[in-house]
Amino acid sequence: NFLLTQPHSVSEFPGRTVTISCTRSSGSIASNYVQWSQQRPGSAPTSVIYEDDQRPSGVPDRFSGSIDTSTNSASLTISGLKTEDEADYYCQSYDSGNRMVFGGGTKLTVL
Amino acid sequence: QMQLQESGPGLVKPSETLSVTCNVSGGSIDKYYWAWIRQSPGKGLEWIGYVYYNGVTNYNLSLRSRVTISVDTSKSHFSLRLKSASAADTAVYYCARDTGSHYDYWGRGILVTVSS
To answer: Are B58 and A99 in contact (CB < 8 Å)?
Structure first.
């Protein structure tokens, strides 16, 4: 199986752009779609990106996703940061046995 | 609007079986995967497993020996059973609908504490 490694925390000012990385330890990042979930304090997670770069209905286009095979990583980019974006963000991907693997999560602080 | 709601005992004694049910309303349970995810206090998300509407299951390898997930389409709910519970199983347990590409609906979660 593989691990998904995320930075423990990131911070940025309102209005700026932040990128959160998710690095796959083995196997190609392109082998299985990557999803991103947002979890605000005290709430259940919600999906913000699926299939590497798709936004669910209702998610603002300030959120975008991508993968980079050269670094074997996925990225979540949030532009025009708002205080409401302050949350924990998790990347996740299925393994070859169709079992979900979660990254450790990244705490985003909007300064 | 689809809604998922977890229910079950909030307190389980060590060595007993932890049981949680997810009631699905506002839509059909058919043709989807239904997942359980947990989050220990202050920790990240851990995938437990899923059940397909036809009863096919898939489990986290580290929990496989203790976990059973089942579905009852007539009652529009699915359930998690985790036997031989210990303090390490204390967590918020979430249910979610898995479209195959993402979890589009989540329950609010239920805190289950394992303690004597």
So the answer is: yes
Q: What SS3 class is residue A83?
A: helix
Q: Report the amino acid identity of residue A87.
A: A
User: Within chain B, which residues score under 50 in pLDDT?
Assistant: none
Cβ of A7 under 8 Å from any chain B Cβ?
A: no
Q: Quick check: A10 contacting B, CB < 8 Å?
A: no
Residue B115 DSSP SS3:
coil
Calpha distance B4→B25 (Å, rounded) = 6
Neighbours of B87 (CB within 10 A): 11
- B4 CB burial (10 A radius; 0-12, 13-18, 19+): buried
Helix (H, G, I), strand (E, B) or coil at A26: coil
Would you say B35 and B95 are in contact if contact means Cβ atoms under 8 Å apart?
Answer: yes
For A37-89, how does the pLDDT look when each residue is reduced to its tens digit (9 = 90+)? Answer: 999 999 999 999 999 999 999 999 999 999 999 999 999 999 999 999 999 99
